[in-house]
Amino acid sequence: MNKHTVLIIDDEVQIQKLLSITLESAGYKVVSAFSLKDGISITGSHPPDLILLDIGLPDGSGQDGLKRLREWYQGPIIMLTVMNDEKNIIHAFDNGANDFLTKPFRTGELLARMRSLLKLSTQIKPENVFVSGNLRIDYVGRILRKNGEIIKLTATEYNLLAILSKYEGRIVTQAFLLKEVWGPSYQKESHYLRIFIAQLRKKIEDNPALPKHIITEASIGYRFM
Description:
The chain is α/β, with parallel strands linked by helices and 225 residues long. It folds into 2 domains: 5-122, Response regulator (Rossmann fold), CATH 3.40.50.2300; 129-224, Winged helix-like DNA-binding domain superfamily/Winged helix DNA-binding domain (Arc Repressor Mutant, subunit A, Orthogonal Bundle). It is 40% helix and 24% strand.
């Protein structure tokens, strides 16, 4: 049985009951907050291992709460909402969400996503080195090795890869990548990303047509696995 603590920030009593029963049965310790204010207060005083955050709360938007939490909280946050439009989903990922589930959702899927995020968050990696399969990135030397051999990257290619790897397992939106690599005025130039992602895949993937490292999340962005 795991001993992870999960904070549920949701004002719906029935959702709280359902999630509490499900998570406690799976071995989690559950803490409940029915408002954004209480959720932020609990997180500040007793940080949980993972947060389930509803977008619609009585005292504020979960999107705004997400931004406030990300000022200091580094653990996984899964957004829960009845709204599944693309704009809300992208906004949530831009604000720092790790995942997004639309109500009603399958509890089995929720538990699987939680396990994946908690596993990623507890993996200890050397601060200046990233290793994934046959890839090794030296952040200090700005060097990429594949199967031990140095792979030459342009400055732009390296910057893209470094950002994606530092958010391993999380979706990084197109707008965020464009802003971080090219600057705020390029946030709508998605063709830049397509060109450089294609170049990166040719250099790091065994089969660029079937990528295993840089995964496209349709209409949203990319995920490094």
